[in-house]
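Task: sequence design from structure.
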């Protein structure tokens, strides 16, 4: 169950939907089950996110929502077997999906390899392990 957690400047609901759909489609095209892809968004509060000791969220930040992030910190929880090429392509897809293309934008994408046996999800009223089950079960 690949999961993408985005922390960024405020985004409009339509921008979040477009980003989530784009990332879900990309992951589905690369072998993930679309229904298992989870994308979540969190807006950073003023003076909460710093890079190089400088705040990227200040009290003077515009509180309006935008179509594109001005900066983002993203954590992708993916299967440990995904190789460097997959991670590099996914990082670029995240950048494009968030609309970060200017020289002044800030983006970090971190990958957390996650074993399927450490993920459980609700299915038909009970918690189910994401670990593939042996044949015949």
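Answer:
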């Amino acid at each position: 169950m690949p999961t993408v957690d985005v922390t960024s400047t405020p985004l409009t609901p339509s921008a979040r939907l477009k980003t989530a759909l784009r990332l879900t489609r990309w992951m589905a095209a690369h072998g993930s089950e679309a229904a298992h892809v989870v994308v979540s968004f969190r807006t950073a509060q003023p003076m909460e996110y710093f890079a190089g000791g400088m705040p990227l969220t200040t009290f003077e930040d515009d509180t309006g929502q935008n179509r594109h992030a001005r900066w983002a910190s993203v954590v992708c929880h993916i299967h440990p077997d995904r190789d460097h090429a997959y991670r590099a392509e996914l990082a670029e897809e995240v950048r494009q999906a968030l609309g970060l293309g200017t020289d002044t934008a800030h983006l970090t994408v971190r990958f957390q390899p996650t074993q399927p046996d450490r993920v459980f999800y609700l299915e038909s009223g009970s918690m189910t392990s994401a670990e593939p089950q042996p044949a015949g079960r």
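Residues 13-29 form the longest helix (17 residues).
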